[in-house]
Amino acid sequence: MPVRPDAVAIYIRWSTDEQTDGTTLQTQRERCSLYLLSQGWQVNEDLIFIDEGFSGGNLNRPALTRLRAAVAEELVDCVVTYSMDRLSRSVADTVQLVQGEWAGKCVYRSASQPISTEDGNPTGQLIFNILASFAEFERALIRERTHSGLVRRARQGMYPGTRVPPFGYRRDGKGRLAIDVATADVVRRIFAMAVEGPAGQGPTRIARALMAEGIPAPTGGAWWAHQIRAILTNPVYRGDLVYGRRRVNPAARRNPAAPRRLTGGKPLAVVAGAVPPLVDRDRWEQAQQLFADRAAARTREGLQAKNRSLLAGIARCRCGGPLSLFYGRGGQRYYRCSRHFLSAGGCGADPGVIRADEAESAVVLAVRERFATEGLRQAVAAIAAAPRAAGGPAAPPARPRRSGKRMAESTTPQPDWAAAAARVDLWQSLDVAAQRQVLHGLLRRLIIYKPKGAGAKPEIDFEWEAPV
Hints:
By secondary structure, the protein is α/β, with parallel strands linked by helices. The chain has helices at about 25-40, 60-70, 90-100, 120-155, 180-195, 205-210, 225-230, 280-305, 340, 355-370, 375, 380-385, 415-420, 425-430, 430-440; strands at about 10-15, 50, 80, 105-110, 170, 175-180, 240-245, 245-250, 260-265, 270, 315, 325, 335, 355, 400-405, 405, 445-450, 460-465. A hairpin with a 5-residue loop joins strand 12 (about 325) and strand 13.
């Protein structure tokens, strides 16, 4: 494909692990600029893309992202780098980028290697594939050597890498973990609160207690439940040094939204007794057992509450958090914002609790008033004539999937569940799960908010799915 003289881009990448190989930013820029001039092309300052301090292990780099956008908009006919590994040290990423995403849009050339992906240049394409393989091989060797060194340090009892020490510890002069007197008592207290009493205290309650006393979190700000949970489940506090529980996520190479690290799997090194413990092993194990019991109980209670909750999975708080059902004194049912009441910092909307019977009655009344038309009532007989396997009226269909805010098209006719809601006797004959499915089909969005204070009434905002 022809290359416009003013549509040639220069891409430069330099990372901290390449400080001694001679590929500085200035070296790359000068070599690429001279190459462009030797080909009769212009050096366009607007088409020079520089990523400083970024690894070549993936494609998630700001300047490369801008370059890819420029290629997609057909502003670039040719991309030039100092060497091919400046694009990526991954064969899959390099081939996918040059021969996949850029195919037919622009060509690639190297200023220091006889590489070109232009048609009619099979030698340049062969060298491109060979050098891409060597670049990935070199990267794998570097990763293996780094990994091996960190694992060896961990087995020697030294805290690997440059990570911040766990809360309650500090590094000593030899790279090992030593107890930090200023914060160790906070960790011990967290474990004591977690195991005190028959069932202990949960992470949210512990976080609120620490915040109420003005004790700063590891980050210096507010405590959150996930921080308490991370402390209570970290084996370092029983004296064991664990390395390698987190893994690189392969999907993060091509998807910037994917997490870069994955937690789980067998750790690379576990060294028992390598760290001075802050709690004894019996207390640590007791905290894990209470955690597991509480999680199992929460799962059972959540399933039971959902089966008794008409608005579960439908109603949301003003902040966007889901409303969940809980029981107060005397068995009274309430809805509350999960995001607000289950995190130490709240959700920002500062909602109060909402009596379930008030909210559910208001929603059902609004549904009946909106869909109580004679035409809809005539469809009730057809719906009621389709009995369920266990008897009674037919269960509502599963809610169709949506793309964004639009409902997916359905090729099969759906029963008129608006009519079912309008028919009082049929509505009352449905169980809670079936009524909830009816509401799923009728409501696109349901926001319920109640300000704090005596006498405050819940405010309900409907967005209907079905037309009138």
